[in-house]
Amino acid sequence: MKTIQKVAMTSIAILAFSAVTGCSNMSQRDKSTAVGAGVGAVGGAVLTGGSGLGTVGGAAVGGVIGNQVGK
Predict the structure, then answer these.
(1) Is-contact 43 14, C-beta < 8 A?
(2) Based on the structure, what is the number of domains in the chain?
(3) In the chain, which residue ranges form alpha helices assigned H by DSSP?
(4) pLDDT score at 24
(5) CA–CA separation, 4 vs 50, rounded Å?
(6) What confidence score (pLDDT) does residue 68 get?
(7) Non-local CB neighbours of 34 within 8 Å, separated by 6+ positions
(8) Full-model pTM
(9) Domain ranges, residue 18
(10) What is the C-alpha separation between 43 and 21, in angstroms, rounded?
(11) DSSP 40
């Protein structure tokens, strides 16, 4: 079961990065926010063992950090 979770999280991360690179009309700050949210979601999922709450929390924190870095 853990292998399936790892494959799913890797796929989600790849899709998130692909989506961000495909949005050329986004500002640098928007891109940083999206990348931060994607990385945070993956990190939150890994740290909490795939918990939905951990994934959402990681995405929120990552998005905020990405937003601030993209200023």
Answers:
(1) no
(2) 1
(3) 2-21, 28-47, 52-69
(4) 67
(5) 11
(6) 93
(7) 16, 19, 20, 23, 26, 63, 66
(8) 0.67
(9) 2-69
(10) 20
(11) H
Using pLDDT thresholds of 50, 70 and 90, give the confidence band for residue 1: low
Greater confidence (8 vs 1) lies with 8
**Residue-wise pLDDT tens digits, 28-61:** 888 888 888 888 888 888 888 878 888 888 889 9
CB atoms within 10 A of CB 61: 16
d(CA 56, CA 71): 23
Q: Is 50 left (phi over 0), alpha (psi -120 to 50) or beta?
A: left
Give me 64's structure tokens.
């905020």
Cα 10 → chain centroid: 11
